[in-house]
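Hey L., structure's done. Input below.
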Amino acid sequence: MKQINIAIVGLGFGAEFIPIYQRHPHANMYAICQRTESKLNAVGDEFGIDVRYTSYDELLADPKVDAVHINSPIPNHAEQTLKALRAGKHVACTVPMATSVEDCMEIVKVCQETGLKYMMMETVVYAREFLFVKELYEKGELGKVQFLKASHQQDMEGWPDYWPGLPPMHYATHCVGPVAGLLRLEAEYVSCFGSGTISEDLVKIHNSPFAVESAHIKFKDSDLSAYVYRSLFDTARQYRESFEVYGSKKSFEWPLIEGEHPVIHTAKKPEPEIPERVETPDYAHLLPEEIQSFTGRGVYDAGEKAHLSFVQGGGHGGSHPHLAHEFISALIEDRDPFPNAAQSANWTSVGILAHESAMQGGKIIQVPDFKNP
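Output:
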């Protein structure tokens, strides 16, 4: 049975994926990499991983590594991705792909030149809610999709390093991904408005004043557009990654409060009967039996190990085993993963360019053609 030697880079959030790869029938959880040696050894000892690196360059020089899964801080994503691709390794990388459109383009070009695979590990497009709506769409139950909408609101106060003052749309893939990903649409241009202000001490870090950024996305070769909005600071809201789809037959709306059930609206019923709360099923059956249990639990389910993104994000909708399985399957089957490099670049660049638009009063900005860089 063919197996892929995986190396995980960054062991905060990254440790979530170690037991998934260890149990996946086509993966060998080969190596881990972390700059802090004490943490590297603690994680390596806990999961029984012998091959350990404090140097990323030394890891990339290891010929046994087939693919790297990058979970480092956002500012490092593009540099580490490009280094890995140029070292002949396939890449999975946590969101976003990069912090500039130019770096997104460069990653796409290197993938085309080398034939190596890249996958941005966007949790929302493998969350149970997205998989549920995708199933409704594919069965024809939504009818013609007419509009898509998504949000990602989060209080980032107290988060470390690069987060304070970050422009909201610079971390937009959790809401851009589902509106583009459901029908596999390509964003063509974007217009975004900023609203409100954050505190002066935060504004000066990135020269980004807005409390909320809201954008309209026009999709290429489609009659559809989408609306997405983001907030990170000084805006009262429980954590929410919402995704809503309006169809001619049925529409899906995210609950307002975490823990409530979403709502399906069905056309042509008596008005009081149109809305109905539904329970989103789990989609573990789509996975190899060995990793099905990870849709309902993770390394960080409880106690002091709880990683803030996992706790606030409600476990990311059970997406982690689906992400790992898609990446491994793409390598085994020699096909592009979803999202591939061009799709990941499109989704990431929408957010980057949306912030540019907001800084220019809502100016329409074209998204580059990443399929033909």
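Residues 341-359 form the longest helix (19 residues). Residues 305-314 have pLDDT under 50 and may be disordered.

-- N.
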